[in-house]
Amino acid sequence: MRHGRAKASRRTLQFYRLNAPHIKSPYKILLDGTFLVASIRNKVPLTERFSKTLQNEPFSFFVTRSTLMELEVLSKRKGNNSEENNIFVTARQFGLDECEIIESDKIIPTTATNNKKFSDASRDIFHLSTTGGNNKLSYFVATQDDTLSDALREMPYVPLFRLGRAVLLLESPSSASRKYTNQTEQRKLASAGGLMTVEERDIVNVLRKKEREKQKDLRAEEQKKLEKRSRDEYGVGVGSNPRKKKAKGPNPLSCKKKNASK
User: CA 184, CA 121: separation in Å to the nearest integer?
Assistant: First the structure.
């Protein structure tokens, strides 16, 4: 792995460790059919690449039963040549041999996707990785499916893997993840790190309101003192403009007398 990608992966993992502590080692990698097929087609050694990207932390592969069924159907599709069939068969076999299989009856729908473009396999992966609204089950999702990826980027704390040809990439945290983190931090600040009860927070808000009113009164009193001092010393108030005396007529000394006519 190149230094730049390794550094980016460290930053991403650090973000999840700090802001989503439920996503921790040993990591759980949920593979979909498109990712498995791409890895076989590009001859990517998945175990080795994931180990490097995850900083040699322990991890496990997972696959849904619907994904294995999808690969089985594709391997038997008419019109495929023998090479394509072998890719689907090998991808399915990797799921059977190297992954822990998640049965469909163990998957609880949590969010209505309302997306007709989702296959059964993609829908199962979406439900697994959005449990609790913030990926409570702690799955990293590895997929080449753009529709699934776009939907998961809208949910907080769902780390995504994808393949750029033969290069394994861990995406940076999505904007949804960063927004969720900021909102969580704001709530913590408002409740003293989550240690205050509702009653205690109400008391603090009342005290803060009284303190603001007290400061407002003090500023008003100070302004009055300044105006009084200004009037005593200069005869004008603070911020007031002294009136200028208007000339009632021409200055007689500046007027030149007319010469008497001879």
Answer: 32
Buried b (16+ CB within 10 A) or exposed e, 90-112: bbbebbeeebeebeeeebeeeee
Q: How many CB atoms lie within 10 A of CB 121?
A: 24
Q: How far apart are CA 174 and CA 172, in angstroms?
A: 6
CA 97 – CA 103 distance, rounded (Å): 15
DSSP 132: G
Residue 262 has pLDDT above 60, yes or no: no
pLDDT tens per residue, range 125-164: 999 999 888 899 999 999 999 999 999 999 999 999 999 9
Alpha helix ranges (H) inside 20-130: 33-41, 46-53, 65-75, 82-98, 120-129
Rounded Cα gap, residues 133 and 242, in angstroms: 66
CA distance 178 to 34: 27
Q: Which helix (H) or strand (E) holds 130?
A: none
3-state secondary structure of 124: helix
The pLDDT of 47-63, averaged and rounded, is: 96
- Return d(Cα 119, Cα 90) in angstroms, integer: 21
The confidence score (pLDDT) of residue 40 equals 96
User: Which residues on adjacent β-strands are paired with residue 28?
Assistant: 60, 139
Asked if 23 contacts 16 with a C-beta cutoff of 8 angstroms, the reply is yes
